[in-house]
């Protein structure tokens, strides 16, 4: 066996047992010089293998071991593993493998690179560099977020504004104080609204609108900020919308008050009579503020804009156009062409053409037709006593004043004409024609109110009183006393509108009225009922100082010295009427007292005001009167008086303090003609009989307000 005698102990150096190859170059050198080379691997004269000289201390291994075939006697080593060849992909250039470095030559380099004897791949080295850079950047970013976040924590983030007010960097309390200081004036600024050419102002405190400072601050980030919030605070601006506190009920009420000036009810067409002549009341569009949408518009505009807010308005169309009313006027003219005769047993009464016209109108029906509507109750005021025994008529409960205290006078039910059936019968006769004699139905009629209702009306004290004077014993005084008797004890319910013509009806001889002078077309003429305007003027002043609502009053054409200028009213039948409304929550008792030279009207109720005062301007804008003569048999002389203008304002007081005042009422009086009556047969003038215009029941122009 070869090498059997050799020692089996491994040499100290595993490669020492392998004979080192002799450099060919070295052999050639030896042969050339005649020197014999030393043992393999032994340098001669400082030369390395292969005959190279090396600097002192440099190992020949730096060049690697020579690739010489192993010695025949050296043990064979396994062949080196060939490097893995990558698959060659189509379309891509072939990547040549990096030659493997023999382990024996890689050692120093690997150790130098810190690879523990093996060289790290370049991709791993790149990955380590990326990881290092990423960690460094992440640390920088984290510190860049953490430091400002700590500084911002607990305060409103920098750059935060509310309606232009910077609250950044402040505590919540400081931010709230700044908002109140900077935005309070703006929060109280009135909002301008407009609609249909009308501009009005809405004050936020009256409309339940205010800035919710706490709610606004709650929207601003003020805790420990997240990274996005930090970035926004450092490079941008955080705009917070103000939070608004809205009391919807108050805002709705404010819009409804605004709507009172803007809304206009639709005016349905109608045919009314002026005297016996039917006249068409032209239909007119109405308009209505859409309250819900208006509330939303004002709420959205508050604190966001200074521009006027346009309120949404809906146009309301009338049911029937004017053309149909023009056609129906022919029917209306025929309706008052003759009186109606009412029959109740053996009793008869006539509805005159004038009474019929005063209580008849033509109005649109739901189907678009024009139909007659008859106010039977108003018409019966003049004739019912002719159809029913007064002893059987119903009596309303009322109050009498005893020792300055109101005492109840009981009422009772009675017999009366069925007003609804009468209205149906007359409207049917007008539509279809036929007989104008109507058999009325009598029925049990209850009083207007019961005694229990009367007690609940709060009639306990006198709230106003007014007296006017007149000469004794004239025919007009009879008329004043007659109307006073009719209205004495009348109760006006809360909210009810008092209409003198509706309650009294036409003044006629059957009810005790007589002829007396009144003004017609600028002249004094005698007519039944003349003089009752003095009662109306007296009642108007009781309304004025009682603090009740004036609905309709018509001043005389000429000023009459016995009346307060600017505080008087005329009346005639059917127009002009005198109307006022009991706008208090209590009932109003009308009491009338008279003497031969005066008439007094008192109102009893519950006082709402300590005092109501009249403030009048001095008469101004005087106009001269004309002078005329008349020789007619019905001439009534007139003294003549200048015309003028005056304004009167009503002022209300409560607890000694003014609480409100009405708009001024302007009255323009025309000059009264100086009229001299001439007797043509004698040639004498009746100037000495000229009279003051004692009364008027017709005014050619209403008061100007």
Automatic annotation (TrEMBL):
Tagged with keyword Transmembrane: yes
Region Disordered, annotated ranges: 1-126, 673-705
TM helices/strands, residue ranges: 130-151
Record-annotated YoaR-like putative peptidoglycan binding domain positions: 230-302, 366-438
Family matches, as InterPro entries: Glycopeptide_resist_protein, Vancomycin_resist_VanW, YoaR-like_PG-bd
Keyword Membrane: yes
Keywords: Membrane, Transmembrane, Transmembrane helix
Composition skew (Low complexity), residue ranges: 103-112, 679-688, 696-705
Composition skew (Pro residues), residue ranges: 76-85
Protein name: Vancomycin resistance protein YoaR, contains peptidoglycan-binding and VanW domains
Origin species: Thermostaphylospora chromogena
């Amino acid at each position: 066996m070869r090498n059997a005698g050799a020692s089996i102990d491994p040499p100290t150096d595993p490669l020492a047992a392998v004979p080192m190859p002799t450099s060919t170059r070295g052999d050639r050198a030896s042969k050339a010089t005649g020197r014999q080379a030393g043992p393999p691997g032994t340098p001669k004269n400082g030369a390395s293998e292969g005959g190279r000289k090396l600097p002192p201390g440099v190992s020949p291994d730096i060049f690697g071991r020579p690739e010489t075939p192993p010695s025949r006697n050296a043990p064979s080593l396994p062949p080196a593993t060939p490097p893995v060849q990558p698959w060659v992909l189509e379309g891509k250039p072939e990547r040549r493998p990096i030659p493997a470095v023999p382990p024996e030559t890689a050692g120093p380099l690997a150790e130098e690179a810190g690879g523990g004897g093996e060289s790290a791949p370049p991709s791993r080295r790149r990955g380590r560099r990326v990881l290092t850079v990423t960690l460094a950047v992440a640390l920088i970013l984290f510190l860049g977020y953490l430091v400002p976040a700590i500084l911002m924590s607990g305060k409103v983030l920098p750059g935060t504004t509310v309606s232009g007010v910077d609250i950044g960097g402040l505590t919540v309390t400081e931010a709230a104080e700044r908002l109140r200081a900077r935005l309070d004036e703006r929060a109280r600024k009135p909002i301008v609204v407009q609609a249909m050419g009308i501009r009005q102002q809405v004050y936020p405190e009256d409309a339940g609108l205010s800035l919710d400072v706490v709610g606004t601050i709650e929207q601003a980030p003020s805790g420990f900020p997240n990274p996005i919030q930090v970035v926004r605070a450092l490079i941008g601006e955080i705009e917070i919308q103000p939070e608004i506190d809205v009391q919807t009920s108050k805002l709705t009420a404010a819009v409804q008050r605004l709507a009172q000036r803007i809304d206009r009810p639709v005016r349905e067409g109608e045919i009314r009579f002026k005297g016996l002549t039917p006249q068409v009341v032209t239909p007119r569009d109405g308009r209505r503020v859409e309250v819900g949408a208006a509330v939303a518009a004002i709420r959205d505009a508050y604190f966001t804009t200074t521009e006027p807010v346009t309120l949404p308005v809906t146009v309301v169309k009338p049911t029937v156009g004017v053309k149909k009313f023009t056609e129906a006027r022919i029917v209306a003219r025929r309706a008052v062409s003759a009186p109606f005769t009412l029959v109740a047993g053996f009793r008869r009464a006539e509805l005159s053409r004038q009474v019929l016209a005063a209580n008849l109108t033509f109005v649109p029906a739901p189907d678009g037709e024009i139909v007659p509507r008859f106010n039977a109750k108003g018409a019966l005021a003049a004739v019912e006593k002719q159809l029913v025994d007064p002893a059987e008529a119903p009596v309303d409960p009322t109050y009498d004043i005893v020792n300055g205290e109101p005492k109840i006078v009981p009422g009772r039910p009675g017999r009366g004409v069925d007003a609804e059936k009468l209205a149906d019968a007359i409207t049917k006769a007008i539509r279809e024609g036929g007989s104008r004699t109507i058999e009325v139905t009598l029925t049990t009629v209850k009083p207007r109110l019961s005694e229990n209702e009367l007690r609940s009306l709060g009639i306990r004290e006198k709230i106003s009183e007014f007296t006017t004077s007149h000469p004794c014993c004239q025919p007009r005084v009879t008329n004043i006393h007659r109307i006073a008797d009719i209205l004495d004890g009348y109760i006006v319910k809360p909210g009810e509108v008092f209409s003198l013509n509706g309650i009294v009806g036409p003044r006629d001889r059957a009810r005790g009225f007589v002829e007396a002078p009144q003004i017609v077309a600028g002249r004094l003429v005698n007519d039944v009922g003349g003089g009752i305007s003095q009662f109306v003027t007296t009642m108007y002043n009781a309304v004025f100082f009682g603090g009740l609502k004036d609905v309709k009053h018509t001043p005389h054409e000429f000023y009459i010295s016995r009346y307060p200028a600017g505080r008087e009213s005329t009346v005639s039948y059917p127009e002009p009427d005198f109307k006022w409304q009991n706008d208090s929550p209590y009932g109003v008792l009308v009491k009338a007292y008279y003497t031969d030279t005066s008439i007094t009207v008192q109102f009893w109720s519950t006082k709402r005001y300590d005092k109501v005062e009249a403030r009048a301007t001095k008469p101004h804008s005087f106009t001269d009167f004309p002078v005329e003569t008349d020789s007619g048999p019905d001439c009534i002389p007139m003294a003549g008086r200048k015309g003028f203008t005056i304004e009167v304002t009503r002022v209300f007081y409560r607890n000694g303090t003014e609480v409100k005042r009405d708009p001024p009422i302007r009255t323009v009086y025309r000059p009264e003609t100086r009229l001299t009556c001439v007797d043509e047969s004698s040639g004498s003038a009746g100037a000495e009989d000229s009279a003051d215009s004692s009364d008027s029941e017709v005014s050619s122009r209403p008061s100007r307000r």
